[in-house]
């Protein structure tokens, strides 16, 4: 074995040398000089994912910035969500990440812990002004004591529902402090009326919410194990969700797999009362439904312990950037500049800066106003965020989704699923030790 | 690995190397390598190093971002002993290959034969039949497929006419893989085209001679079409088998990237992708790739070995 | 005469009917591109748009972020043209070497070629990316186009198999006439494998046109994007997707592929019959 390793290692050495010989003489484009002079031309690469409107307004923002800072040239690299992450992985492997990266929570730990992202702490309150931003919001971008991303906005979980469809189930309104029992009642009424109460709960997000209301969490603080000890909690939560599928109050997974987009979502087609999702998704469903809809808080008890402000996305600076300071300046522009945020209008999540929020309010469409109001309410009725998911969370989430699917079909007993989940999830997370 | 090309090397070899013969052999070598030089150069420039690196990475713990850590055979051990999803993906893939490839090829050959007539409408039909393959693996296909195989989709309606109760294609893991198989059969265009090109290459005089001898259509098919087409059949079988093992896009788009329901469409390549790029276990993904290479390599070798029995090369004097 | 007409009818009803069945999904796609974006899925069961609208095409053609869809089509055409020429020419040369010439190490190299087909692209992708990064080829067509000039195993093997259906006596006759190796290749073999070359050209065109992963990895500036990347940009994972524009532009991008297919497929038909081998 040792010998083989030697041969392979030398092959690797040869290969990397061979690969190097191609072009070491000059470097082009973004990888320019070291220290930025005032008049020196600087090129920053900036990458984001999103849809057409986001591309358009972000390009406008870039133009605004370039006008104010004639020495800075920003190259935009945008793509759809799927394509974006396909681009990022090899760029990280080759040390070719763009200077400014729009980062998602689910990939955050993976990139940050592997030293792909720069620690922004040195720039805070110098290049990046955070004085108007709630500390909780800033802390969302921290891993340990290092700040790897500035929160671009926040999202909050909620129940988005259609009041008309609610009436079909014979219910006039939802009470402010409803509980899981009220939810189950509502589900039963919906099923009796021949409609769905909702389209199911994304298992990892809502199980974590449930655990938080009980003072636990899905992952332990250090990310090396699960954050709850008693499998009864797993059993309680998933007995409820799979029971609702069995009672036809919630559609089966194969029904959901046939949906093509939010356009034929059961809420939009009035076959379901509501949908459990993040606050930023409300605007889209409202636009498609073209009917007044409401955002309602999560079921309790102790919903304020369960709710938290989730960073919608981050602005991160890559570790291989040659112009971290300039990149940080641009990040500050993105989060604090009023004109910028008038273009963004909360598309990247409700802004963290209170000054910005106040300036935006008069400009918002009614459904955006609802989102801002809900987030404002949640700021006072929520608890601290647990921090980004640990490495390996992607695998754990997929495991949970798959178990939850099997429980929904009744192919797997909840008790057995709880055991399987603990055993396999612990084995994935233990690799972080 | 054995290949059909090996055989003809034996032809006309000179076993007593005289100086003249050696010179001639050298000239032959030079001409040969001159023709295949693009591939050889490209192989050294773009392919060899990545292949060696991939083999090396399969013995490491590599998350794409941090330097790989050598862990010996751990990845392979985990694959065979501690990963039920791996076996599930292998099972699904084998079903996909062994059911999908013969169906697709049979279908492609049938249509190619039907279109190999002198009718004027044939060019038009040929294009129509090729259209599904042009739509490719776009999101639009995924959406159409969700429509067609939906609870009230056209497939279930057709089945109900035959008295078969509706199938929950998106809920039943054993049914779900058939959606992918149907999709691959539907996109039979590329195999059809190759068959068609092969059929067109058979000299008409062969058929005319057979007609004079009083052969019927079936006899012509067995005695002329099949043997003359056999090199192309070999090509399609080998390539479609390899391609089927590598299938990724349809499974990815139809299951929305999960391989569901309950891993029913978790094709090998999809699982490999998830491991490498979603779970960031790139070392493990590389180990999976090398096991796949061995499996596909053995299968291809078997097909090539069997080809000696059934493939007829006109170039070898009609053996 | 009457009998033949029955046969004729059976043929066309069978083949034509079947073609329509196969085409249903395509027709659905086409019709959906004339529907209003938000109604496409809700009215998925009825084929006919109500009302018919053109705005999807107008919207879609405007493109994304200041680049009209025409830019993406132009980019793709350039990429496809450069790739197609490289793949077909280099693969034909290599295939001739494998199929007709005797040299030492042939079996070895053929086996190597087959092996390169069996390793999934996902695992060689990262090392390859690093090599191209070192060569400073990123954000250009180079990593996509240059490798095409070094032979493509699929096409090499395809053309090998076709050359091997050509009787060797032809070569021998040519040698007696004084042809050298290259002349045999150029004057005898090339005209006879036109169907295979046309097939390879069609595949090369379509696969490059449709390719997603390569362009996604190597093209960073949106102004350089290809159509398949542009189509994905109409979709959103957070808000409302512009399905109408996506479908409309999907239809538009199918047109060149279809035209190319229609033009090239003639050569497949002609092939042997016009080259006049053995009658």
TrEMBL record, chain A:
Protein name (record): Multiple sugar transport system substrate-binding protein
Keyword Signal carried by entry: yes
Family annotation (InterPro entries): Bact_solute-bd_prot1 (IPR050490), SBP (IPR006059)
SUPFAM superfamilies given in the database record: Periplasmic binding protein-like II
Keyword Ribonucleoprotein annotated: no
Keywords: Signal, Sugar transport, Transport
Pfam families to which the protein is assigned, alphabetical: SBP_bac_1 (PF01547)
Species annotation: Mesobacillus foraminis
Signal peptide coordinates: 1-21
Automatic annotation (TrEMBL), chain B:
Subcellular location: Cell membrane
Keywords: Cell membrane, Membrane, Sugar transport, Transmembrane, Transmembrane helix, Transport
Membrane topology listed for this record: Multi-pass membrane protein
Signal peptide: none
Gene3D superfamilies: MetI-like
Family indicated by similarity: Belongs to the binding-protein-dependent transport system permease family.
Protein name from the UniProt record: Multiple sugar transport system permease protein
Source taxonomy: Bacteria, Bacillati, Bacillota, Bacilli, Bacillales
UniProtKB/TrEMBL annotation, chain C:
Annotated TM spans: 12-31, 77-96, 108-132, 144-163, 184-209, 243-264
Location(s) in or outside the cell: Cell membrane
GO biological process, one term: transmembrane transport
PROSITE patterns: ABC_TM1 (PS50928)
Entry keyword set: Cell membrane, Membrane, Sugar transport, Transmembrane, Transmembrane helix, Transport
Origin: domain of life: Bacteria
Alphabetical list of Pfam families matching this protein: BPD_transp_1
Membrane topology: Multi-pass membrane protein
Record-annotated ABC transmembrane type-1 domain positions: 73-264
One cellular-component annotation, GO: plasma membrane
PANTHER family: ABC TRANSPORTER PERMEASE PROTEIN MG189-RELATED-RELATED, ABC TRANSPORTER PERMEASE PROTEIN YESQ-RELATED
Similarity-based family: Belongs to the binding-protein-dependent transport system permease family.
Protein name: Multiple sugar transport system permease protein
Source organism: Mesobacillus foraminis
């Amino acid at each position: 074995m040792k010998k083989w390793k030697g041969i392979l290692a030398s092959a690797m050495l040869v290969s990397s040398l061979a690969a190097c010989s191609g072009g070491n003489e000059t470097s082009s484009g973004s990888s320019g000089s070291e220290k930025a002079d005032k008049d020196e031309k600087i090129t920053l690469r900036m990458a984001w994912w999103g849809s057409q409107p986001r591309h358009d307004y972000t390009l406008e923002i870039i133009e605004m910035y370039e006008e104010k800072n004639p020495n800075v040239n920003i190259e935009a690299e945008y793509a759809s969500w799927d394509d974006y992450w396909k681009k990022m992985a090899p760029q990280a492997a080759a040390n070719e990440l763009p200077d400014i990266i729009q980062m998602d929570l689910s990939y955050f730990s993976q990139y940050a812990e592997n030293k792909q992202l720069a620690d922004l702490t040195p720039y805070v309150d110098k290049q990046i002004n955070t004085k108007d931003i709630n500390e909780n919001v800033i802390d969302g971008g921290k891993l340990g004591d290092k700040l790897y991303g500035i929160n671009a906005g926040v999202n909050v979980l909620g129940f988005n529902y259609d009041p008309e469809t609610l009436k079909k189930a014979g219910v006039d309104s939802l009470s402010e402090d409803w509980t899981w029992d009220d939810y189950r009642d509502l589900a039963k009424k919906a099923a009796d009326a021949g409609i769905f109460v909702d389209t199911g709960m994304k298992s990892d997000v809502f199980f974590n919410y449930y655990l938080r209301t009980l003072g636990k969490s899905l992952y332990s603080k250090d990310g090396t194990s699960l954050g709850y000890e008693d499998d009864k909690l797993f059993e309680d939560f998933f007995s409820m969700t799979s029971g609702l599928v069995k009672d036809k109050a919630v559609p089966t997974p194969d029904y959901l797999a046939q949906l093509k987009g939010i356009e034929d979502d059961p809420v939009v087609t009035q076959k379901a009362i509501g949908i459990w999702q993040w606050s930023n998704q409300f605007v889209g469903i409202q636009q498609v439904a073209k009917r007044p809809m409401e955002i309602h808080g999560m079921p309790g008890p102790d919903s304020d312990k369960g709710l938290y402000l989730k960073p919608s996305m981050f602005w991160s600076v890559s570790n291989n950037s040659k112009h971290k300071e300039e990149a940080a300046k641009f990040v500050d522009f993105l989060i604090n500049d009023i004109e910028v945020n008038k273009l963004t209008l909360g598309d990247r999540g409700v802004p963290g800066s209170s000054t910005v929020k106040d300036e935006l309010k008069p400009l918002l469409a009614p459904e955006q106003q609802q989102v801002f109001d809900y987030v404002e309410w949640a700021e006072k009725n929520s608890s601290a965020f647990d921090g980004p998911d640990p490495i390996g969370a992607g695998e754990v989430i997929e495991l949970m989704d798959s178990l939850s699917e099997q429980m929904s079909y009744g192919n797997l007993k909840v008790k057995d699923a709880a055991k399987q989940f603990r055993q396999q999830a612990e084995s994935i997370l233990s690799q972080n030790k | 690995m054995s290949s059909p090309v090996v055989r003809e090397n034996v032809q006309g070899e000179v076993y007593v190397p005289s100086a003249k013969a050696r010179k001639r052999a050298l000239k032959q070598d030079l001409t040969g390598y001159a023709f295949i030089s693009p591939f050889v150069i490209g192989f050294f420039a773009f392919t060899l190093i990545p292949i060696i690196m991939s083999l090396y990475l399969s013995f490491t713990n590599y998350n794409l971002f941090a330097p790989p850590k050598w862990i010996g055979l751990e990845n392979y051990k985990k694959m065979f002993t501690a990963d039920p999803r791996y076996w599930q993906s292998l099972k699904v893939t084998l079903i996909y290959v062994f059911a999908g490839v013969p169906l697709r090829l049979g279908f492609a050959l049938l249509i190619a034969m039907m279109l190999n007539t002198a009718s004027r409408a044939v060019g038009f039909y040929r294009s129509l039949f090729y259209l599904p393959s042009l739509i490719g693996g776009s999101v639009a296909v995924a959406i159409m497929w969700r429509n067609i195989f939906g609870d009230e989709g056209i497939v279930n309606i057709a089945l109900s006419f035959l008295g078969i109760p509706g199938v929950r294609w998106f809920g039943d893991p054993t049914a779900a893989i058939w959606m992918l198989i149907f999709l691959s059969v539907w996109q039979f265009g590329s195999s059809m085209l190759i068959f068609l090109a092969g059929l067109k290459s058979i000299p008409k005089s062969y058929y005319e001679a057979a007609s004079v001898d009083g052969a019927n259509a079936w006899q012509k098919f067995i005695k002329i079409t099949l043997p003359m087409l056999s090199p192309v059949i070999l090509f399609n079988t080998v390539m479609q088998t390899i391609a089927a093992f590598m299938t990724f896009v349809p499974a990815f788009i139809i299951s929305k990237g999960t391989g569901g329901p309950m891993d029913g469409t978790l094709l090998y390549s999809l699982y490999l992708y998830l491991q490498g790029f979603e779970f960031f276990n790139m070392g493990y993904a590389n180990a999976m790739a090398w096991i796949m290479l061995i499996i596909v390599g053995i299968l291809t070798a078997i097909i090539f070995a069997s080809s000696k029995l059934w493939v007829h090369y006109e170039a070898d004097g009609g053996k | 005469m009457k009998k033949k007409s029955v046969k004729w009818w059976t043929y066309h009803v069978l083949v034509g009917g079947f073609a329509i069945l196969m085409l249903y999904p395509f027709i659905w796609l086409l019709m959906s591109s004339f529907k209003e974006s938000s109604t496409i899925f809700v009215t998925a069961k009825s084929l006919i748009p109500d009302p018919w609208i053109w705005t999807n095409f107008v919207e879609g053609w405007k493109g994304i972020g200041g680049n009209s869809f025409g830019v993406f089509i132009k980019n793709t055409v350039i990429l496809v043209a450069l790739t197609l020429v490289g793949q077909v020419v280099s693969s034909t040369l290599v295939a001739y070497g494998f199929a007709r010439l005797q040299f030492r190490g042939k079996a070895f190299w053929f086996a190597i070629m087959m092996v390169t087909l069996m390793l999934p692209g996902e695992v060689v992708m990262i090392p390859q990316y690093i090599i191209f990064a070192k060569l400073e080829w990123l954000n250009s067509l180079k990593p996509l186009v240059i490798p095409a000039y070094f032979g493509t195993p699929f096409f090499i093997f395809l053309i090998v198999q076709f050359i091997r259906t050509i009787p060797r006596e032809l070569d021998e006759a040519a040698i007696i006439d004084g042809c050298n190796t290259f002349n045999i290749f150029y004057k005898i073999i090339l005209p006879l494998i036109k169907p295979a070359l046309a097939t390879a050209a069609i595949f090369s065109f379509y696969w490059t046109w449709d390719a997603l992963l390569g362009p996604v990895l190597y093209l960073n500036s949106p102004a350089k994007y290809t159509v398949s990347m542009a189509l994905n940009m109409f979709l959103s994972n957070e808000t409302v997707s512009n399905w109408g524009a996506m479908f409309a532009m999907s239809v538009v991008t199918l047109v060149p592929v279809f035209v190319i297919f229609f033009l090239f497929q003639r050569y497949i038909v002609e092939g042997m019959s016009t080259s006049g081998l053995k009658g």
